[in-house]
Amino acid sequence: MRFRVPASVGWVQGADVLPHDENIYLLAMPDGVPAVLEGNAATIWLLAAEGAHVRQSVAEMVGDEVERLFPDIETFLADLVAQGLLEPLGED
Amino acid sequence: MGGAFIAVPLRVHLTHATVQYIADASGVDLLHVKGPALDASLRPTTATADGDVVPAPRLSTDADVLVRPTHLDRFMAALADHGWSTITNFESGSVFEHAASLWHTHLGYVDVHRRFPGIGLDPELAFERLWRGRHSVSIAHRDCAVPSVEEQRLVMLLHSARGGGLANPDARLWLAATDAERERCLQLAGAFHAEVALAAATGRLDEYADDPSAGLWRILASGGVPNRVDEWIARFRAARGLGGRARVLAMSVFVNTDHLGMRLGRRPTRAEIAAEYGRRIGRLVRDGSAVLRGRLRRRP
């Protein structure tokens, strides 16, 4: 499962602006409400935004735990897609 | 996820990206200046936890953009269509009537400039010159056009000329510049008819003592709170032509209803506007008396 960030989404890595800010800040332009992703949500976003295969990448980080975690991750990603913050590119 | 608090410097990045998005959709030429648009080579440096020296992030409280003057009306209409409210308009925003300040509930402030104070070149020609030298930077992952690095240096110095001159932190862009960078900056100031303002920024205003605008720039570069009469005399001298001078005289007692509304936190009533006119005229009379007393005392 891969994704890309639509051209209509602006986003900032907090650490690029403020020291020790590990959050992601994103906005569906021009009329969306800015959103904040913290912790694991920020990590998943970065994987998706880089075009990585999200499930494989998570599996590389957590091993077999991916089976337990992935339903929640899928729900989170579907939510981002529904809000226009990500576009699915397919399975490969 | 949504609607959370976002620190202003982070929000400013999203603001730059959003106004660029709106400009793109409206066919508007826009240049981003200051804040996150400032080239890394012009920022002060800071040490990281690892001991690396890197350009410091530029923390701003609003986003600053310069719009091509012939696209201004279209851009302002497009911003209004997307929820931006005008807080101060061009005429009431500053002495130079150069920028309007707009507010968005989720994104904060953007300052829309139609020209830069200190640049005497026709605003459309000045924009075109800056536009020709532009390059693109990514702000919140949106490509935003910015002036060339050396033109950014000039713009920052002209801005510092209004805020303390050499005492302004951005004066380092002159003080720490190489001879070649200073020479290029002086050349650009000539091309943009910005010599006097640059002189004010760089402590060389005496070279332009005979220029009609020198008095105004001396007051602005002093960084202190000017006597109102001295300021208005300086503005009168700097104004071009009879029309310009008549406008300065009218503005000397003009009540900025935008600012008054911001101070009161609501739209001012007629009585409050009238009272403000009374206060302004009274202050001018008091300041005028002080100036007169000072000048009489200085006479031999």
Folded structure, characterized:
The complex is a heterodimer of chains A (92) and B (300). Chain A has helices at residues 39-49, 54-62, 66-82, and strands spanning 2-4, 9-13, 24-28, 35-37, 87-90. In chain A, 29% of the residues are buried. Chain A has a three-stranded antiparallel β-sheet with strand order 2-3-4. In chain A, strands 1-5 form a two-stranded antiparallel ribbon. With 92 residues, chain A is of the alpha+beta class. Chain A is built from three helices and five strands. Chain A starts with a strand and ends with a strand. Helix content of chain A is 40%, strand content 22%. With 300 residues, chain B is of the alpha+beta class. Chain B is 49% helix and 14% strand. Chain B contains 13 helices and nine strands. In chain B, strands 1-4-7-6-5 form a five-stranded mixed β-sheet, sandwiched between helices. Chain B has a two-stranded antiparallel sheet with strand order 2-3. Chain B has a two-stranded antiparallel sheet with strand order 8-9. In chain B, helix 1 (8-26) packs across helix 2, helix 8 (195-201) runs parallel beside helix 9 (214-222) and helix 10 (228-238) runs antiparallel to helix 11 (241-251). Chain B is globular and about 60 Å long. The model of chain B has no long low-confidence stretch (mean pLDDT 85). At the A-B interface, strand 2 and strand 4 of A face helix 1 of B.
